[in-house]
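seq as requested:
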Amino acid sequence: MDKFVLTIDSKDIVADTGETILEAALQNDIYIPHPSSQSVSPSPFEGEEKRSVIQHW
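struct tokens:
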């Protein structure tokens, strides 16, 4: 696979063609905020019995 050099935060890193910038950055210990890095807070109902609520009008 071909390689290329990119610069992130003044640091040159080598990445494979087809690799995303995010993948290349993370493999070189450069953090870029991204959706899957966000911690998901647990449901306030976790551990409790699940209940369905049906309202009749």
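The radius of gyration is 21 Å.
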